[in-house]
Every structure is written in C-alpha cells, then in structure tokens.
Design brief:
Elements lengths: L8 H6 L13 E7 L5 E7 L1 H10 L3 E4 L4 E4 L8 E8 L5 E8 L14 E6 L2 E6 L3
Parallel strand pairs: 1-6
Antiparallel strand pairs: 1-2, 3-4, 5-6, 7-8
Length: 132
C-alpha cells in the first residue's frame, strides 16, 4: 500500500486518512503495549513496508536500525506479536500497537524491554532490575 503524503495540519490531526509522517530516515516510532494489561513492552521503528505488512497481516513487523533490515517480531524466536489494535498519534509520526504476545517481548528474555528502573541517590543514577 502506498501511503499518501501527509496533508495539512488539520487533515493530519482530525482527518480520516492514514498519512504517516516518516522522519528523514523514513521511520515512525512504534510504541508497543500488552493489549490486556496495558504494560509497555517495547519501542521500535517502522518504515512504510513494516507498517504496511503489519496492517496487512496483523503480525507486528519493524525496521531494525541496527541491522538495516525488515523483521517480523518472533521470526526467529517464536515470540510473536499479534496486533489487536493500532492507533496513530495526533500528527501521525508515531503508532501505538496493542498486541497479544507469545513469549517475552525483549530479546534478553524479559517480558518487557523496560525491566530496569532508574533510581537516583546522592547525585548518582543507578539502574535497578525490577523483573520487568
């Protein structure tokens, strides 16, 4: 699917046409949460192909900035993400996926990629593992 170029501000913010505003690298941010609990599982990026494949298949696809390639979540690990709902933010430069996870979301084996809390003490910041 070819996404139309973003229109004027009013169309982006209140219109009914999906016109993702990709950044200079051709990406939009994807925030991923558990569809049942609302827990934040991960943040990733999508290019136009990843967004199109996600919409078409109902399985989350992303663009790996580090590997420079398209990937379907769970392709090698089996930890797939079935999309229950997709939302777009006000200016269409980020998407929110509510997913059903099969296995952990994080490549480290943690349920969520957000498994370390920042704690500040005496001007120092520590990362404390919270069990994700």
């Amino acid at each position: 699917m070819a996404f139309p170029a973003p229109g004027d501000k009013a169309e982006l913010e209140s219109g009914s046409t999906l016109s993702p505003k990709f950044d200079a690298a051709g990406l939009v941010t994807a925030v991923v949460t558990d569809a049942t609990s609302g827990e934040v599982l991960m943040v990733a990026h999508m290019n136009d192909v990843a967004l199109d494949k996600t919409i078409e298949t109902g399985q989350a696809h992303y663009w790996s900035r580090s590997r420079g390639e398209l990937w379907r979540k769970g392709e090698t690990s089996g930890n797939t993400q079935t999309v229950i709902e997709m939302w777009v933010d006000c200016d269409q430069d980020a998407v929110w996926l509510k997913v059903e996870m099969a296995g952990p979301a994080c490549h480290t084996g943690e349920r969520s990629c957000f498994y370390r809390r920042l704690e500040g003490r005496d001007g120092k910041v520590e990362l404390v593992q919270s069990g994700g």
